Amino acid sequence: MPKISVHTGNENKIFHVPEGISLSDALKRQGFLLETPCNGKGICGKCRVLIHNSVPYTSEEKTHLSPSDINKGVHLSCMVKVYDNLEISLNTDQRNSSIVTDANISETIGRPVVRKTFVNLPRPSISDQRSDDVRFISSFNENNLYSGFQSFSLSFLRELPDILREKDFDITIIDISGSVTGVESGNTVSKNFGVAVDIGTTTLAAYLYDLNTGKQMAVSSKLNPQKKYGADVISRIEYSSKGKENQAEMALIIRNALNDLIQQLVTAAGIHHTDIYAVTLSGNTTMLHLLLELPSANIASAPFIPVLLSGLTLKPCDLELNINPKGRLFVLPSVSAYIGSDTTAAVLSTGMHKNTEISLLIDIGTNGEIVIGNNSFLYACSTAAGPAFEGANISCGIGSVDGAISAVSIADNGTLKIDTIGGYKPIGICGSGLIDAVACMLKIGVMDETGRILDDEELPDNAKIYSNRLIKINNQKAFLLVRASNTIHGENIYISQKDIRELQNAKAAIAAGINILIDEIRSDVDDIKNVYLSGGFGSFINIDSAITIGLLPKDLSGRTKPVGNAAGAGAIYTLLSAENLSDICAIAKQIKYLELSARLDFTYQYTENMFFGSDI
């Protein structure tokens, strides 16, 4: 078997691998973290490693790697098949990610999903010889003492005598969403916490709340570790659908990540895992299927049929989540294969389903989920925007990490102003920076409305000061943002012609979806009074830049606002109020889903919105 020697900083690791395995798969199996947005298709060019042996280059590698990269021995690990011993070096520098956890929460009405009640039961005596189960039932249901068969589990009945007598028949009853799920010795009413979770394709966010007071106790977040199998849901579906082992692996990855978040929460709040009695879970339909270990292959191809859309109540042991075993997990309801409970939760948190005014909700990510409506109707669609907004499939693209270019603007003297996350030296460009950069390219005149980067001789007079930024990378035009001498890795950061095409495809899909929803309700842009931009990307995006490139209609400028993690906020609302838990089920039923792939007008709208806006 071939041997691989991996150098990471001052550490070395040696292991054997099956002959013919791809280098990226071999590294993943050993727990190494790689950027693999395309999941090994050779499309994104991100899974770069330095190979010290002489290995031939594939045509896919030559497309993504510069002559300098090739001279150094840089390869795309997904394109290298291992037949001989290899010695490689990996950059394992993990940068802090900027994850939006802001969830706009107002006062909630109603009782939380978990209610704990302290009861002092009468002690048994010669004159009161009721059985333990009847004595217990009488504490919360005096009219149902002798109703015949009970649904108690044997494990509960085996524990009941000790629970009742441990604190001399002082007990606390656990009522979750109207059902008694357990009993505890003594008065444990003060220990009543819940966790709301938003499972995103890219990031995970979890919120710990005291259910007695409605007070937020802690917040934790992390990148979704499933990203090593692709940046988009289709790549992850493809991987999980290769066999039961892969399906189980994807479920275990996300469950372990949720337990990590729970550990962070309880540590920050100074409580115990068993003090948590409820978890509400929002996420897109694919993420929920992967969590639940449900087959997801049918989501990826027409007619796009998921296993589950309904809300689901589970026991903690069903997903092996580390909370009180008497607690419950609430998987929030979805609408379709591509409108998940993250969208229904966002509708709930914005309150657009209660307003008489028409509102538009947009969550832009690898998919773009869009909802339009009010208290009378709700319509939704999903557009395959691709991973461009997440920084994937972009030459110098990167996630929202320290050093990522997050904003680009034109200074008064005409120079480009570059801002990075954390103020660090630039390492790449994230989605919000990409939109800004392209908007600036339009404004300064180095790119036309079709998205074509102009040749030097085509530049208008006022744009000639930028001619030194027009470069070629692998025989394609590019616009230089930051020179190698000013970056952390000593390489240029640029926007290529291919990157612009990627952005055009993504923004055209979103814009087309918006226009189709407006047409569907037989309305126009003027009738939309509120536009909510949900999610991490919506929180960072420059609205003027989005309008400049035609991502958003220009007439919506003054009515558009970011709403943070609206999906997380919706999950919190369902945790804090049983009424909201009921409302989100009604929202899921009310939303009418439009399948864009079946509509001729989508092709027309998509084509019409490929061009960048002319009113700059």
Mean pLDDT: 89
Approximate strand percentage: 15-25%
> CATH topology of the largest domain, which one?
Nucleotidyltransferase, domain 5
Strand order of the largest sheet: 11-10-9-12-14-13
Q: What is the CATH class of the largest domain?
A: Alpha Beta
Classify the helix fraction into a percent range: 25-40%
So what's the oligomer here?
single chain
Structural domain count: 5
Q: From the coordinates shown, what is the CATH architecture of the largest domain?
A: 2-Layer Sandwich
Biggest sheet record: 6 strands, mixed
The 3D shape can be described as: globular
Give the low-confidence spans: none
Brief overview:
This protein has 616 residues and is an alpha/beta fold. Helix content is 29%, strand content 23%. Strands 11-10-9-12-14-13 form a six-stranded mixed sheet, with helices on both faces. Strands 25-24-15-16-17-26 form a six-stranded mixed sheet, with helices on both faces.
Labels describing this entry:
616 residues; Ubiquitin-like (UB roll); 5 domains; 29% helix
SSE topology sketch:
Blueprint: E1 3-8, E2 11-16, H1 23-29, E3 48-51, H2 59-64, H3 67-72, E4 74-76, E5 86-89, E6 114-120, H4 132-138, H5 154-166, E7 170-176, E8 179-185, E9 193-199, E10 203-210, E11 215-223, H6 233-240, H7 244-269, E12 276-283, H8 285-292, E13 312-314, H9 316-319, E14 328-331, H10 341-350, E15 358-364, E16 368-373, E17 378-383, E18 404-410, E19 416-420, E20 428-429, H11 431-444, E21 470-473, E22 476-482, E23 493-496, H12 497-520, E24 528-534, H13 535-540, H14 543-548, E25 560-562, H15 566-576, H16 578-590, E26 592-594, H17 600-608
Parallel strand pairs: 1-5, 9-12, 12-14, 15-24, 17-26, 18-20, 24-25
Antiparallel strand pairs: 1-2, 3-4, 3-5, 6-7, 7-8, 9-10, 10-11, 13-14, 15-16, 16-17, 18-19, 21-22, 22-23
Helix pairs in contact: 10-15, 10-16, 12-17, 15-16
